[in-house]
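Consider the following assembly input.
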Amino acid sequence: MNIFLIPYTWPRHLLMGLWCGAAGVMAWWALLSWTVMFGPFWSPGWDGPLLMSAISTSVAGASILGEGNLRRQRLLSRAWRLLLVLGLAMGFTLIWYSLWHSFSLWAISKIFEDQAADARDHSLVSLRFRLGAFAMCGMSTGMASMMGRGIGGWKGMVNQVGGGLAAGLCAAAAWRICIVSYNDLYLAGAAMGLAWGGAFGLLAWGIPDELYAGWLRVLSYRRYGHRVPIDATEAGTKERFVGHFPRGLDLFLSADDGVMEMHVSVAVDQKRHYKLRGLSLQPTMLRRFLESYNLRYDPRRPAPLEARLRSGDQITIGDGDNSATLEFLMLPREER
Amino acid sequence: MWAILLTLLSCGGGGKAPESARLVTLPGTTTRISERAQITDGKDLALQLYTTAAQCSTLTNTDEEYAVCMPHVDRASGEVRLSFDLREPGSPDPFPLPLTTDHVRVLHDRRPVVNNAYSAFELIPHNPQAARQLFIIVVDGSGSMNDVPRGKTLRRIEQVRQALLTPGVKDAFFPGTVKTGVSLFVFSKGTPQPLGGRIQILEDKGAYRDALQRIPIPGSFTHLYAAVKYATGELLQDDTIGGWLDRYDAEPTVIVLTDGFNNTEAREVCGDNAEKRYGNLNQLLQELRKVRRAKGGRRPRVYTVGLGEAIQPEFVLPNARGTEISGEELCDSEVNTRIDGVLEEKGIDNVSLEWIAAFGGGNAYVSQSTAGLGRAFEQAAAKRYMWFEARYRVSPAYLRRQFTSTIELTALATGEASVEIHPSAWLDAPPGVVAPDGWTRPASYRRSLSVVLPLLGVVVTGMFLGAAGFNTRRVLSGRTRPPKPPGR
């Protein structure tokens, strides 16, 4: 996970899902490889807790490590946070699994005596007796990653723990579908790991907008490729000015290109909304696919016209041969 | 926290290994099997199921044999493979037997596995045993053997002669790879008489063919039980027979052929064969058991061949095999029917033949045709094998829980063993590959990469798709190349 390789486009929302899904698959494969090649040193009753904790641990760890990589945290910080989450995820998963297993055995033996033998059979492949374990272990993933990240209020808690619960249930569904539809317990394990990680990555923590900043980049011949960030600090605001005034402006463009002293500005507010303001009487157009806005300053209005900017928007300043073109891009904040 | 965790796991989630047996993992799978199979006591032979690599490595010579010797469970196809041998009680060495699928029954969780559209069972013998054998053929010489059965053109004795002279039978008696001999006898009343007037052992096909040119039919009654008793007892102590057996360290195999019932006098009824004071079936069976279990003695194997139509075609040997067979059990509704001239006309006493073969460690065959008789002789002289591979297939759903596989010997002798198998509820190795014979062979674990690598490939590709799409769009819209200078 590298923020410089993740452009600000909609597929970025899937990346954590893919990253955590890959971790889930790798955890399943690692445990399976050990079991098949070296043989398990544990009893059959441990198969479930170990697989669940392997997937839960790796998914929670991948989520935390992914975030650390994207935020480019210090290596030491990433490492201790990862270790903390791994330990918490494994502990939570094993504890919740055991509690659930013990409780369900007790409840089934009291309420459904005829099913007690089935419930005790560690080899029984049945979602009916495993659904609770999936849900509990999914929640354990969420709880561990929540504690690794910080609780983050009610919203964060619901996101993390709810995402974990949903991930566990998605894993159960994928596992069940592979068994019922394809009669393949081998693929069922892979699907379980992928679904668990994928759902958790998608639901629990998405790549936040704060990792990106808006940039203005020159597309016209003079000063081609020159760019400036509109990099407000966290929860702050900022405005960058573009014109041909030689001193104090953020982005200088030549007057030969029809650019006025202070032609346009780009502002970012506390909600990280970017706006383009037309400050000149000269032509100023904002263009995007099937849309265009004329932001030429209207002296009859008390304030300049402004429009929301989106990554990839094109700004044309001036007219005809005497014009300059800029683009607005969302790039990683630390891009230089 | 970890202390609490371990305590919880030890009493709850983790569970404990079954106390009945230690479990070992089947190679290449996630399935565990009881290290020690449960051998049922009180049977003729101890059926030894292999569960560990150590057991298989002592019995197999090649990697291929070793691979099929180890138990295997393929849950995707619902197949289970188990290997076993048979041992005489107390003996450490396998006892070779000519087992086929018909001689063995497999039970999956106490339900028999039969060959049909949903399940299948096959027994594959391994390591043929080149045992030296003496075949003692005892042919019924009663008067009825001179008769021509309805719908046939040959006398019964001629049918027998032709069956014994078929190439398959001759090859089975004289395989050429190991020392074998044949001794021919005819029985009717009293002691069976050797062909040619003196006991001789035929050691090649030519002498055998010549000896069979003329089989005398003395006529009279059918002293079947006495003939079996003589062939498995007194005869084996004879200088010629016993000397040959000792000289070549060979095993005696007795093949008895009859076309009727044991009948020692004209007024005898069927029930007498079970209940008369001397020479009844129960006494013969006890004698056979004694001979077969005698330590250090020769242990003859007895095959019975019936020429004609079975009088009780639906008869099946009971599982519990005692030697207290009543007249009703032997004869059903014909218990008081006279044998001579009445029952003999209806068919042959297949029930006696089954009992004799069961106690004699052999098999019983009934046929009306020459070809059928030939097959029966061939099977009686069939190769013995050291160990066997039992493959069975059930619905894969039956392999999604702990189960017990039982292998039971239903013919030649009795023997039974079962083993507990614990598949993992969570993990499974890659499914096997279907071989040309229709059974699944275990797939190499490297095959699991064919799932993991594409999956990871898709994931990694997906992670770069966004960047690739973004850059492609920028290239196509010309934003990555500087524009031309103005005015040009």
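Chain A touches chain B through 74 residues (CB under 8 Å). Ask yourself how this observation constrains the way the partners meet.
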